[in-house]
Asn/Gln amidotransferase domain-containing protein (marine metagenome), 565 residues
Amino acid sequence: VHQQLDCGKLFCSCPAGTGSPDLGFSRRLHATASEMGQVDTAAAAENVRDFGYHQGDGNCLVEADEEPPRGPNPKAVKIALQVAQLLGAQPLEEMHFMRKVVVDGSNTTGFQRTALVSTGGRLEYDGGSVDIEQLCLEEDSCRRGDGNDNFLLDRLGVPLLEISTAPQLHTPEAVQAAARALGRLLRACRVRRGLGTIRQDVNVSIPEGRRVELKGFQDLGTMPQVVEDEMERQAKLAGITRSEPGPVTEVTRLLANPPTSAWSCRLPGWAGLLGTTKSPLGHPRLGRELADHVRRAGVAGLLHSDEIPAQGVSVDEAETIAAELKCGETDAFILVFEKKEVAMAALERACNRARKTGVPHEVRRVLTEGGSRYLRPMPGAARMYPETDIPPLKLTSENVELPPTLDERSAALPLGTQQAEQLVRASLDGRFYELVTMGSSPKLAARLLLHQLPELRKAGLPTPGKAALEELIEAVASGKLAKEGVDDALATLARGEVLRLESSSNADLDAFIDELLAERKDFVQQRRMEAMGPLMGAVMGEFRGRIDGALVSERLLVKLEEFLG
Ligand SMILES: [Zn+2]
């Protein structure tokens, strides 16, 4: 789970604002070798290319990688330690930032800074518990802007907690329940709220498959289904053996109307496995998979033998190509239209995928319509090296004050469980205590925050200020305003008008009832006790908001019984 913290940025003092497109600047990123001299596979899979960055209103040298990072932000470190303690994790003696090579353009530096804060810990969730492996404090990446390879800097450098659980969640439902519990625990601390502020990556493997990382969950509700889909996908791939591709051959001259030069190679044993959009559900669709790989080399896609006729290539032409490539009955072929250099690089990627038996070790992107698509190879340890611009930070000397959890906050409220839960979930418990301090009863405060003020906002009226609310609460507390009158009084205050409270005494009420009974004598005689309802309506019409409805009902009943003898 990745959770954004609500305390500015990690390595500079910029706010985590909103970026808007501007002229920006560009960077060219390429993979470098790590400490151990190896280049990470995921980094190597990215093409070296130009990326555009936009700062909006900002103008920060740290974000542009023109100035060394400052910090780390002490507030972020404090929150990280709070979360570690809430999880029962063991903080490290010292925190050392590392650089994790990421050259997909999502940062300006070519790496993401990350530091291990604690190890161990345990998370209780609905239906079980799971060990926590580690908690890292890292910087968030850029948001994608319009168009390919364009990025916005507003999110870059926002402190992010990365919490990884141990591989102990055995059902899709347990994965969801644990994610939910962790989200709730995090909300005890100063974390950012709203869309995209908490992101889950789920690693799924089945006994006959391999670990695959799924990124880009839209919401927790879809999580069990996505995990289920991945389990099915892995089961499907588990039975497929690798194909050793034949040599790449130019086949341009075999085609009547090639858009540009055409390059093709044979995939032994893979006929029928590539599939098309018309393939039945449960088909491995390896053609689409290979197409996702060639796209990473910058080509639009590929053509394969299962989908012909397509892209202007006829069945006859396909037979000629198959003969040229020496394809047997069970062999497939793939084809790319591109100039030689690009085509070779693209087919090389597809061939590398074809050489893998069963489930490849990779990162995939979750699709909103279900299923997932290939994103990049699984990064390995080769992508880390030390960040030398940030000195190590002693963690043992940090004094951590533990915030109350949401459960504790909810239990502390002098309200029923449901209302208390609602208030805490909406982070309104602070406001609740404010209103109670102003003299409001807990009941009134809860009703105001959960119903009456939201209703007001829905009606398009502004929320009354502190003084106005104080006046309202005072009026209710002193009995000048009955609870039925609060809605109208709020609207009056919201419009900026003066609250006019006519205090009504019980004597006024009794007098009004007497008069009413006399006036409607015949009706009352005829309907007897059933006249209560209509009479109540008439009295409330007069006293609504000034005298409590329960009191009106009580007085009316007494008077009516007297009247009827
Ligand atoms: Zn900055």
Q: What stands out?
A: The first helix runs from residue 41 to 44. The chain has four domains: 2-15+28-200+382-386, 249-355, 406-494, 506-564. The two ends are 73 Å apart (CA to CA).
